[in-house]
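Notes from the 1:1 (GR / supervisor)

We went over the backlog. Supervisor wanted to see one worked example end to end before approving the batch request, so GR pasted a single chain during the call. The sequence is below; no edits were made to it. Supervisor asked that the structure be written out right there so they could see what the output format looks like.
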Amino acid sequence: MRSSDPETKRALVTGAASGIGTAFAARLAQRGHSLWLVDKDGERLATVTRDLEARQGVDIVPIVADLRRETDQDAVVDVIAQLPALDLLVNNAGFGEPGGFHGIPPENHVGMLQVHVMAPVRFSRAAVPAMITRRKGAIINVCSLMQYVRVPGNTMYGATKAFLQVFSHQLRLDVRQHGIEVQALIPGYTRSGFGNTEAYRNSPRAGIPSVLWQSAEDVVDASLHQLGSGRLRCVPGRLNRLTEFFLRHGLFSPRLLRRWIA
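Structure output shown during the call:
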C-alpha cells in the first residue's frame, strides 16, 4: 500500500537513526506503516531509510532535523500539519550529558529542554487535532527510569524526562475521550547508541551489571504490545518493573544508586 492509500497507517518517529528509534521504525515498517523518520544524523538516517525500504517495501520520508533548534522543530511541525493524519507519533529523540549542573554549558541545558520538552509538546499539539477529527491515533513519549533517580549529575535529564511522563499523563486526560491513546514508555538501560558520545567517554557504564540491560527491540516490542490497552505507563521487562516500583517509592539507598547510575 502507498502512503496515499487511506488504509495505510502513518507513523512519525523522532530519533530514528539509532537505538530505540530505529527499532520502532523497523517494527512499524514490518507492520506496513508509511514512515516519517526524524534525526539530526542525516547519513545514518539515510542508511536506515534505504535498509527498511529494501527489506519492507514501505514508503519512508527521512527528515534531517536537529531538534535542539526551533527552526528544525518548525519544519517537523509543518510536515505533521500537512499530513492527512498520523496514526502514531513516537517522541523518542533524546540525549544525556553526565556531569554537575554548574559544569555543563548553559546552551546544552537549553538544548535538552528543546529536545525532551518543547519538541514533544509541539509535535503532539500538531498531531492531535487530526487525530481528534478521526477519533483515532496514538502518541508514545519515551521517558526513562532516570526520572525517578535523585543523584548528582542527573539534574536536567531526570527533570526533563519527569516532565515528559507528567505531560503524557495530563495529555491522556485531555484526549482519551476522543479515542486517542497516550503511552509513557519508561525503559531502563537499553543497548543503543545513547552512550556512544564524547560526553560519556569516561562514564562507568561498562560496569553496569548485564542483567540490567535490554535490547532496543525488546523495549519496542513491549511498547507496541501494550499499545491498544489504554494503559498509560509501559515499563519493559520484569526486572525494570520491579526497579521502577522501588525507585518510585524511594526504596533504594542513595549509596546503591550512586554505584549503579551512570
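Supervisor's comment: Strands lie at 10-14, 34-39, 60-64, 88-91, 137-142, 180-185, 189-191, 213-215, 233-234.
Batch request approved.
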